[in-house]
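debug: dumping io for the single-chain case to check the tokenizer round-trip. Nothing else runs in this session.
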Amino acid sequence: MEVGKYSVGLDIGTTKIVAIIGRENEYGKIEVLGIGKSKSLGVHRGVVNNITQTIQSIQQAVEGAEASSGLKIGSVVVGIAGQHIRSLHHSDYITRADSEEVIGEEDLDKLCNQVYKLVMLPGEEIIHVLPQEYKVDGQAEIKEPIGMYGGRLEANFHVVVGQVSSIKNVGRCIKSAGLDLGNITLEPLASSDAVLSKEEKEAGVALIDIGGGTTDLAIFKDGIIRHTAVIPFGGGVITEDIKEGCSIIEKQAELLKIKFGSAWPGENKDNEIVSIPGLRGREPKEITLKNLSKIIHARVVEIIEQVYTEIKNYGHDEQKKKLIAGIVLTGGGSQLKHLKQLVEYITGMDTRIGYPNEHLAGDSDEEIASPLYATAVGLLMNAVNNENKKKTVENNEPQIEEEGELVMAGHEEPAPTPQAAKTKREKKSVFDVWSEKLKDFLDNAE
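debug: decoded output
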């Protein structure tokens, strides 16, 4: 594969910003060429609240990735999260002019695009329209209606909605950092691409991504995404509680949490004590690990219960909607000791920690296979998929390249790849229309 055919994922989180450069190797796995990360300063609970600081952090992460890979970054795929994200269910139908003709791609596009015309609350915009299942002339539970005859085509949709201003702010930061916005995708979707197997998505699984500022949830069943939610708490509030409860500074609280923290207080003996140096000549503080665990436990239980409420809202208790593969925990917060056991205890569902190594090439750096990088790896996979689709479309079009930097040649409607066959329609109509709109907006705002 020539140099220059590489893609970039950019994860703008509350605690860290990660830029990851990679490409697909000949075995269809993702080969990571470079990674850069920086402390995220201008983001609060997944939402940009300081443009200048966020731009600096993005530039720092991008420079790190460029230095470690020796490549130049042009276009990036970005994740969007934050407490402004909500999802709703919607059914829609179209009546076809000629029922003697088979249903084709354009019918599904027409139906999807109709959903985009839904009237949202002021200041909100539809990010994703994800078809659940179709009905043709009243025949229900059709997964793939293409090639069938019918006059009336109906579908149930999972619609993800976000605040226009928050999305534009992210776009603004990317542009000001000197990058092109290739695509925007919902972060829980990106994480799920990186850590879930096909079998799990079929059997039914809930992915819980515990980040610094938010906890993202994505539920799959029968291979289709059924429910998404963003809960505005993450690892940051646990650190905050330790800081308040033990009267120590944030840096010490974070270290305590990572090194000695546990979500299960019963694990610690009463006489286990850790001593923390005092500030400027003050006496050192002594904290019992049991107390530390109690503080962490209280907050973690609250987060898990909120997530579990969302899982129940989806209808996990119904026989048909049962999530057989249980829960997969990922994100930096999933590395907390005994969290898996606590989640199993509260929800009664099988739980495992999700590592994003399923789609990575065998010789990848061990650090990248950490749950911390699940979203970044998922965004990189999304970028690689888009690149492949664009290549399929542009087979007969010359690719424009400048010193190894990939410049997006006329943002064409991507053609499908087998792996993305199920989601190709929503990606095509959603992202291209939507990214175009966003890009136009940002260009005009210059």
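debug: round-trip ok. The mean pLDDT is 86.
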